[in-house]
């Protein structure tokens, strides 16, 4: 088990499905553990899955997204984990994207749009889509994209 914020590329390459463990939450930190044996009961849990991202120049990244029944950004909340350990989230809820995230997109030279494709198999729904920038809800709770 590890803290979600410490999840790295190595852990995701070894374990493409992770379960969030709120029961073991410590000091406000959410823990994750690898899913070793799939069962239908896991659909009642909150899961994240390894996700592949490819930008318009075919540069590839790895990260994770929440496993949901839709590819909506507010549901899947995709994230890239860079080799440096930095995390870039594409979903910001009711907050506008942070300057740190905007700067990170520039620093890593991410070229939008990004295609994302989540790990799936015959038991897990295929979640995929396109990211045009960083997403949030505006003051009317409409999903809005901050394009870079």
Structure description:
The protein has 148 residues and is mainly beta. The chain has one domain (2-147). The protein is 13% helix and 39% strand. The strands form two sheets. Strands 1, 2, 3, 4, 5, 6, 7, 8 and 9 form a nine-stranded antiparallel sheet that branches. Strand 2 and strand 3 form a beta hairpin. The mean pLDDT is 91.
- State the end-to-end CA separation: 36 Å
Helix content: 10-25%
Silhouette: globular
Number of helices: 3
What pattern of helices and strands is seen along the backbone? Answer: EHEEEEHEEHEEEE
Report the mean per-residue pLDDT as an integer.
91
- Number of folding domains? 1
**Rg value:** 15 Å
The unreliable regions are: none
Let me know the largest β-sheet.
9 strands, antiparallel
Strand portion: 35-45%
State the total count of DSSP E strands.
Answer: 11
Give the helix/strand class.
Answer: mainly beta
Summarize the structure.
13% of the residues lie in helices and 39% in strands.
Relevant terms:
3 helices, 39% strand, nine-stranded antiparallel beta sheet, 148 residues, mainly beta, single chain, 11 strands
What's the topology here?
Layout: E1 2-3, H1 9-14, E2 17-26, E3 29-34, E4 47-54, E5 60-66, H2 73-76, E6 79-81, E7 87-89, H3 99-107, E8 114-118, E9 128-131, E10 133-137, E11 143-147
Antiparallel strand pairs: 1-3, 2-3, 2-4, 4-5, 4-8, 5-6, 6-7, 8-9, 10-11
């Amino acid at each position: 088990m590890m803290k979600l914020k410490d999840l790295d590329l190595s852990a995701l390459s070894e374990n493409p499905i992770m379960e969030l463990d709120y029961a073991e939450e410590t000091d406000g930190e959410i823990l994750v553990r690898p899913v070793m044996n799939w069962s239908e009961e896991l659909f009642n849990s909150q899961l994240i899955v390894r996700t592949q991202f490819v930008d318009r120049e075919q540069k590839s990244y790895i990260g994770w997204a929440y496993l949901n029944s839709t590819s909506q950004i507010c549901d899947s909340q995709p994230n890239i984990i860079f080799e440096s350990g930095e995390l870039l989230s594409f979903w910001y809820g009711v907050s506008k994207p942070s300057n740190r995230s905007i700067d990170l997109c520039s620093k890593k030279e991410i070229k939008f749009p990004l295609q994302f494709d989540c790990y799936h198999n015959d038991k897990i729904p295929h979640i995929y889509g396109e990211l045009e920038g960083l997403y949030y809800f505006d003051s009317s709770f409409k999903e809005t994209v901050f394009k870079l």
